[in-house]
Amino acid sequence: MKKTVLEIYAMAVCFFSVVVFVVALVTAAWDVVQWAAPEFTVNDRVYECHQSDEFYRECQSEAETGFWRAHGYGARGGEQSEAEPLAGAELTKRRENSYRRLLNAERRDAARGLAQKTLLALVVLVLFGAHWRLAKRSRSGASE
Length: 144
Fold this sequence. Notes:
The structure is a single chain. By secondary structure, this protein is an all-alpha fold. It has 5 helices and no strands. Helix 1 packs antiparallel against helix 5.
């Protein structure tokens, strides 16, 4: 049974379509995990920063001054931060709000990723179907 160039092309596209579909499926599964359990998939450092008021305060301080101090300046490029550090209930409230926003952003990112992977899977399925029919037609035409 002699294979035509058209059949080989169509089967190659089918093969790569299956590979892309599997990759999209695996990454979509991760998006489902990210959506269902965002605290599991969030960045470790950011997660640690939100576990206690002390860690949150340290992370805020590092975010505010870490870059500038590392480059030989005071806080914010030479300015010294004059704001009183937050404490008590206000700090806890800010940390909890920040954590809630973080988890919502993680869920939104997962939903966007899932939508992208679904669209990719649909396109790949259409490509696969069209090329599978092309390969079958080419095979039946070559055997005549």
